[in-house]
Amino acid sequence: MLPKLFFGYFAFAIIVLSLLVITRRNPVHSVMWMLLLFFQIASMYLFLNAEFIAAIQVIVYAGAILVLFLFVVLLLNLREELLTNRFISAWPVGLVFAGAIFAGAVSAVAAFVPNFSGQYTVDVINRETHTKALGQALYTDFLFPFEIASLILLIAIIGAIVLAKKRMRS
Amino acid sequence: MTGLFEAIVGPGSLDYIINLVIMLIIILLKIAAVVAVALLHVAYATYFERKVIGHMQLRLGPREVGPLGLFQPFADGVKLFFKEDIIPADADKPLFYLAPVIFFISALTSLSVLPFFDGFAVANINIGLLFLFAMSSLGAYGIVLSGWSSNSKYAFLGGLRSASQVISYEIAMGLSLVGVMMMAGSLNLSDIVRAQQHYPLGLFAVPQFLGFFVFVVAAFAETNRLPFDLPEAESELVAGYFTEYSGFRFALFFLGEYTGMLIMSAIASLCFLGGWGLPSFVTAGLPVVAAKVLGLFWFLAKVYAFMFFYYWVRATLPRYRYDQLMAIGWKLLIPLALANIVITGLVKIWIKGMV
Amino acid sequence: MNYYLLIPFLPLAAFLINILFGKSLLKENAHWVAILAVAGSWVISVATLIDVMGGKTLNQDLYTWVSSGGFKASVGFLIDPLTAVMLIVVTTCSTLIHIYSTGYMHGDNGYYRFFSYLSLFTFCMLMLVMANNFMQLYFGWEGVGLCSYFLIGYYFNKKSASDAGKKAFIVNRFGDFGFGIGIFVIFLTFGTIYYEPVFSQAGAFATKTVNFLGYDVHLMTLIALLLFCGSIGKSAQMPLHVWLPDAMEGPTPVSALIHAATMVTAGVFLVARCSPIFSLSETALMVVALTGAITSLFAATIGLVQNDLKRIIAYSTVSQLGYMFLACGVGAYTAGIFHLYTHAFFKALLFLCAGSVMHAMSGELDIQKMGGLKKHMPITYWTMLIASLSIAGVPGLAGFFSKDEILWMAYSGPSPVGKLVWLSGTLVAFLTAFYSFRLIFLTFHGKFRGTHEQEHHLHESPKSMTIPLMLLCVGAVASGWVGIPALIGENLGIHNYIAEFMKPVLGHPEGHGTHGEEMMVMLVSVAVGFAGIGLAYFMYMMRPDLPGKLATQFSGAYKVLFNKYYVDELYSAIIVRPTIWIARNILIGVTDARIIEAIVNGVPSAIGGFSRQLRKVQTGFLHHYALIMAAGVLIVMGLMLMRSW
Amino acid sequence: MEHSEPVIEKPFETKELTISMGPQHPATHGVLRLVLDLDGENVVKCTPYVGYLHRGVEKLGENRTYLAALPLSDRLDYISSMNNNVGYVNAVEKLFGIEAPERAKYIRTMVAEMGRLSSHIIWLGTHVIDIGATTPFLLAMTERERILDLFEMLCGARLTVSYPRVGGVRNDISQEFLDELYEFILEFPHRIDDYETLVTENRIWKDRTVGVGIISAKEAVNWGLTGGMLRGSGIDYDVRKYVPYDAYDKVDFMIPVGKDPGDCYDRYKVRVEEMRQANRIIKQCVENLPAGPVMADAPKFTLPPKDLVLRDMEHLIHQFVLITKGPSVAEGEVYVGTEVPKGELGFYFVSDGTGKPYRMRVRAPSYVHASVLPRLCKGGYVADVIANIGTIDIVLGECDR
Amino acid sequence: MVPLNWYLMLSAAVFSIGVFGFLTRRNIIIMFMSVELMLNAVNISLVAFSHYLQDLRGQVLVFFIVTVAAAEAAIGLAIIIALFRNKATAHVDDMNEMKG
Amino acid sequence: MTSGKILKTVFFVEILKGLALTFRTLFKHPVTRRYPKVKVPAKAGFRGLHALARNAEGRMKCVGCGLCGAYCPSKCIHIYTSEGDDHAKIVDRYEIDVLRCIFCGFCVEACPFGAITLSEHYEYSETSRGAFYMTREKLLENWDKYFAGPKGERYFKEFWLPQSNTYSSYEGQAMFRGRAKGKE
What we know:
The complex is a heterohexamer.
Chain B: H1 2-9, H2 14-56, H3 72-82, H4 93-110, H5 128-149, H6 153-184, H7 189-196, H8 209-222, H9 234-237, H10 247-271, H11 280-284, H12 288-316, H13 322-354
Chain D: E1 17-21, E2 33-39, E3 42-49, H1 57-62, H2 70-74, H3 81-96, H4 102-130, H5 135-155, E4 164-165, E5 168-169, H6 175-199, H7 203-209, H8 217-222, H9 227-232, H10 239-242, H11 264-287, H12 306-309, H13 313-324, E6 332-340, E7 343-351, E8 357-363, H14 365-377, H15 382-392, H16 396-400
Antiparallel strand pairs in D: 1-2, 2-3, 4-5, 6-7, 7-8
Chain E: H1 4-24, H2 28-52, H3 57-87
Helix pairs in contact in E: 1-2, 2-3
C-alpha cells in the first residue's frame, strides 16, 4: 500500500510539474518548475534503488543543464515576448498527436510483465553499493561507449564555444 | 537512507508502520537538533569572525551587547527581522521571494549528510559526497535568481559573476575530492573518515596535499569569500546579487553564506583533516560515550580551525579580478586537480604493484 | 614494482611541470626541471644496465589500458639487454643535449616550450623502447612523431619550418599506416599484442600463408614487411627519406637528439625488436638489407655535393641508418644495434658541433661561406674532427668497430645478398669518409669566406655547449670498445661484450668466414676510409679549384646529385602534379563540363518543375517538421503494435 | 519565391550595459560619479561627472581678505589641509613680497610632510581596501590617528588645521610636540614595512595593479599629471626639488620614480616610497630646527602681537586695518605651485591693489587627475576602474572646489 | 509492490507532455525544455526497467543519455544564442529562413 | 625568474608572510578608543565650542568692536550694537551661527580684547537647528561652564595668538634634544 501511495504522489507531482513546465509564459518560471520536477524524478530514482543516478540527475540536470538554460534565458532577456501567444494557433493538432502517442505507448505497455531476472538484485546492489556496481559496469563492459561519451562531450564543448563565440569586428 | 526505502518498498504491516513512525520521529529530532545546533554555530561564526578580524586589525570587535558582546548575533538577528522589507519596483516577486530561500535551503540541506561523530549523521548515505555537490550546485540558482529578479544592474552583474564563479569552481572542487574518493574507495563520508585512520597522521591532507590545496582555494571561491568575493565586491558592485535585499531576506542570504562556510569547513575536516578521528592512544582507554564526545569535539575543533583560516585569509588578502579568478579556476586549479587524480591513480597502482 | 618505472616518468613529470608552470613561473629556469629529470633517468638507466648485465630481466604490466573482449592492451614494461642498451643511448644523448640546449636556446621566447617538448619526447621515446606490447610501442612511436613535428616546426613563424614539420608528419603517415596494419595483422594472427607470446608463437606460424589481395602471401613476410613500412617512414629510408633533410629546419639540438641519435633509430630498434618475426622471412630480410644498402649509397652520394652544413650531416644520417638496416637485413641485428649505439654518439656530436658553428656564424649554414674556423673555435673543431674520424671508420674509434662488424657480418653472413651489400657498404664507407672530411676542410680550414661582420662575430660557444661536446666526444671515441671484434680481441683477451650481451635477445648469425677474410674485410674498409679522407684533402686542401672544375665537367651528374636525384621533384611529378592535373583536366574539363553538366543541366530542369512544387512542403516552420516527425513516430509505433497483435 | 536579403552573419551586437557608479558608491571616494558603459565586464567608456561638491571656493576667496581666506584652502583637499595652507601662504607671501623666518619655514616643511603622510595613509588604506585588503587600511589608520593627535596638540584642530599663517606659522611648537613627533617618526618606517608586507609583494595585489591603468611618460605630461601620477610614469619632477619653497632646499630627500609607461603598481610603489622620504624630511626638520621667531616682522601684512594691541595705538590701528580692509598690496599677479600629496597645487592671485584678491584661482591636481580617468579605464575591467580610482588619489573637495 | 507498468505509463505520460510542448510552444527555449522532458521520460522507464529486470544496463544507458543531454543542451543553447543574434527573437515561427 | 623566486611563488612565501603578520597582530593590544564610555580629553587649546569671556568682575569683555565678525571667513558672527547714554557702545546682541562656523579660530585672533574664545568642549550635538544659534547668554553660559577658574586665565596666556614672543623672544623654544627621556 505504502509504496503505491508514494508512487501515486510522485506520478501526480511529476505530471503536474511537467504540465507546468510546458505551459508557463515566462521561461524563467518554466525553468523553476523544471527544477522541482527534476527533484521529484531524482527522489523517485531513490525508490528504484538508483542512488547514483539520482545524484547524477540532480548534479547534471539540475546543477548544470538547467543552470545553462537559466543563463540563456537571462542572457536573452525575453521580457517583451511575455506579451505574445504562448502556443501556436494550431495547438489542438499537437494535442491530438501527443494524445495518440500516449495512447499508443500505454496500449503497448499495459500488458507488459517483466519476467527476467538479472544478477543485480537489490541485495547485490546494497552489498556492493550502487555506485561501485555501476562503476564496474561502466568501466568494463561499457568502456567503449563511455569513451565515446567523453568524446561527445568534448565535441559539444568545442562546438558550443565556436557557435557562441563573439566574432571580432574586423 | 537505503534502510528506510527498503522498509517502504517491502510489505507493510502494523509493526512496520509503528517502527516507521518512531524512525521518522527520531529522524525529525535529529534534523531539528542538527539544524538548531548548526544555526547557533552559524550565528556565533559571525561573532567569531568579527572578533578575530577585529583583533587582527587592532580593533576590538563587538563587545557592547551582553558580556563580551556575546549577544551581538542575536541583536543583529533581531535587527534584521524588524527591518523594513523592501522589494524593488518591477522585481519578479515570486522569484525574488524564492531566491534567498533556495540559497539558504541548499546550504542547510547539506548538513544532513555530515557525520558529526562516529555513527551520527542525519542520513548516512552512500553517496554523501555527491549529495554535497548536488546541493552546492543548487546554491547557484539562488544567486542567479536573486540577481535577475531584483531588476537591478548591480545585482544582475553580481548574480552572473557569482553563478559563473560557483559553477566554475564546483568543477575544481569536485575534481579535488576525487583523489580523496580514490584513496577512500567510497563516497560515504563516514567511510572516508574511517579510511583516513590508516594513513600517517590520520589525515588525507598529507598524501592529498595537492587536492587539499585545490579544495581550499575552491572552497573559498565557492563560498564567495576573500580573495574571491567578487560577486559581492563591495567596492565594485556595492553588494553584488543581494544588493536589493533587506531585512529578513537579506538575513537568509547572510545565514546561507555562513552555513556554506560551515559546510565547506566540515567537508575539509571530514575529507582531509580526519573528521572526528583522533589518535588511537587517546581513545583507546576511554569509554565509548566519552570517545564519541571527544570525537565531536575534535570534529568541531577542526571545523573551527578551518573557519579561523577563512577569517584569517580575509584579514590578509586583497581580492582577485574577475578574469583572473576564472583563469585561476580553469587554468590552474582544474589542471592541478586533474594532475592530482592522475598522480593518486598512479601511486595507487604502484602501491598495488608493490604489495 | 620497482625503480625502473621512474625512467620514463621523470621526463613526463618534467614535461607536465614545464607545460603547466613554464610560462608563468619557471620561464628561463625551465631547463632545470628538464635536465634534472633526464639526468635522473640516466642514472637509473645505468643502474638498470648493471642489473640487466647481472642477468635480470623484467616484463611487467603496470596498468591495464584497454580490456575489451579479447583485446587487452596495457602500459607495460619489458627490460632486457636490447632495452637496456637503448635506454643508455636515449638517456645519455638526451641528457647531454638538454644541457647543450641551455646554451643554444638561451634567450629564446619559447624556452620553456622547447624544454617541455624535449622532455615529452624523451618520455615517448623511453615508452617506445621500454614497451612490452605493440600498442605501447605504437603509442611511443606516434608520440615521438608528434614531438618531432612540434620541434621541427618549433620556429613556427618560419614558413619553411612549419612546412618541414608538416612534411615530416605526412610522410611518416605513409609508413605508420603500414605499421598500424601490421599490428592489426599481428593481433588477428596471434590474438594478442604482447611481445612475449607473439615472439614465442611466431615459429608456429612460420609457414602459414594468407590470402591478401587475391595472392597467397607468406604470413610472416606480410607482417614483417608491414612493420618494416613503419621503419622506413620513421628511419627515413628510401623512398620515404625526403622528410629528414627538411627536418633540419628545427633547432639543432633537436636535429641531434631526434633526427640523429634517437627517434630515427626507432625503425632499426623495431626491426631488431621484431627479429623473431623477421628471421622467419627471408624475403623480408632481403628487402630490409637491400633497402638499407640502396638508401645508404644513395644518401651518401647526395651528401657529396651538398653545401648546407646540417643537410650534409642529415644525409649522412640517412646513409648510416641505411647501414643499420643493411646489418639487420643480413641477420646481424646485434651489429645494427651496435652501430646504432655508436652512431648515436658521433652523429649527435656532429650535429651539436654544427650547432656550435651555427651559433658562431649567426645561423649561417652554407659551408661555402665558412672556412678557417679552426682558430676561432678550437673545441668545436677538435670534437668535430674526432666525430668525423669516427664516422670515417678510422681504427680505434667507435665508428670503426661497428662499421667493421656490419661489413664483416654482411660478407660472412648467410644472407643471399650479403656479398652485394658488402660491396655497397664498402663503397659507402669511402663516400662517407670523403664527404665528412670535405665538410671539415671546408668549414674549419682555409680562409674565411663569409662576410666581415660574421668574421668579427666568430667565437667559441659557451661552456654549457662545449662541455656536452667534449663528453660526447669521449663517447664517440670509446663507445666502440665494447664491441671489439674477435679478430683483434682474441689476442688481447677482450671479448666482444656487446655481442655476448645481446645474444639472448637478438641471436648471432653464424658466419662462415675465416680470419683471413675477416682481416681482408677490415683492411679494405680501413683503406677506403683513409682513401676518402685523402681524396677530400687532395680536393679541398691541395687543389681547391678542382671541385668546381669537376662540377662543371660532370655537370649532369653533379646536378643530379645536387638536386638529390630529383626525388622531391619526382614525387611532385608522379603524385602531386598528376593528381592536380587529373582533378583539373579530367574531372573538371571532361567529367564535369561534358558529362556531369549535361546531366546536371538536363535532369535538374526536368526535376526543377517537379521540385518547385515539392518544395512547398518545406515550409521552414520548425513546428511542421516536428509534426511530421511525430507522425513518423506514430506510424512506426502503429506498425509495431500491429505486429504484436 | 519572394526575394530575400542574403543572410549575412552579423556581429553580435551586445547591448552595452550602462551603470552609474556614484555619486553614492563605496569606491568612488566621495561624490565622484562615473557613468560606465560596460560590455560584459569590460569598460567601453567611462565618463566622470564632477561638481557635486562645488562650493565656489575661488569666488569666496575674492570676497575675503588675503588673510581671512586662508581657511578656505583647508577645505580643498580636506585630508591634507596642512599642505594646502602651506601652498596658500607661500603664494600670498610671494604676492606680498615678504618671507617667513627660518624657524617657521622648517616648521612648515615639517608639518606639511606630516600632512603628506596622513594623506598618503588615507590613500594607501582606501586604495587597498577597494581592492579588498581590509587590514592595511585599519592598521594605517592607527598611524594617521597619531598624526592627527599631533596636529591637535599643535594647533587645536585635527583636520582643518589653518596652522600656517602669511609670514610664518600661527604659533610656535611645544617641546612635547617635538618629542612626540620624534618618537613617531622613529617608529613609522616599521609600520610602513608592515603595510608593505601585506601588500607589496602579494601576488594578488600585483595581479590587480601591474599592467593596469598604464600611461606613458609622454602622455602623462600631455595630460598635465603631477605628483605621484607623473612620477609613477618615470618622470623625475617634483616641485619641492625643482622650485624649492620653505625649507625643502635645506633637507635631503629623494624623488622616487616609476618606469615608463607606469601602471598602478608603479604609482603605488612611488607613493609608498614618498612616505619613507617624507619621514626622512620630518626627521631632518626636527633635528635641524633652528631657533628664532616664527612670524615675519612685517607689520603691514601680519597681525600685530596681541599683548601689544591694547597697549600700543599703532598696533591697534594695524589690527583694525588689516582685519577690516586687508593688507595693501601692489597690483600684479602671482602663481605659486607647491607639491601637495596629490600633485602640484597651484594658487594664482591677481591683485588690483585692494586687500582682497581680484581673482583667486586654484590649480587643483585632483581635477586634472580625474580627467585622465576615462583614459585609464577604457578597455579595462570593472574591477580595474576601482584600482584606477584608487591610484589617481583624488579628493573631490579639491576637484570640485 | 508497484507494477512495472505503472512506471512505464508515467513515462509515457511525461513523454507525451514533452511531445505536446515541443509541438505547440512558440518559444524555442521551452521547446528545448520539452525535449529534455522527453529524455527524462525515457530515463524514468529505463531506470524502472533496470530495477525490475535486475540489470544495470538500463542505468548505464541513463548515464549515457544524461551525457548526451548535457552535450545537446550545450550545443542547442549555443545555437539559440547564435540564432538570437541574427533574429533577436526566440519565437520559432519567426524563423522560417529554410523555407523552400 | 630565479629559482628562489620560483620557490617563493610555489610556496606562497609572500602570502604566508602576510598571514604571519595578521596572526601576530591578533595578539597585539587593540588601539580602539571606546568613545562614549571612555572619553579622550581634548588637547589643550582645542578649537571647540565658542564662549564669550567674562572679566574679573564677571561682566562680558566684549565691547562690540566687530572685528571678529569682519574677520570671520564664514561670516557667522552677528553683532548688533547701539549707542548708550554715555555715548558708550552697548552690545545688544552677540550671536554666532555655530552651524556655519568652521572653527578656524580667526575670531579669537581678531579680537583685541580677548572676548571671544573657543573652548575645549566638542560634544555639542543637539536635535534641533535652533540650539546651534548661540546668543550672548548662551555664550556667556559656555564661559561659566568650560572656562571657570584658572582655566580661563591660562587660555589667554597661552592660546591668545599671536603674541609678542612669537616675534621676539626665543627663550625656552622647543628644540630637538634627542630621544625624549622616559620613553623607551
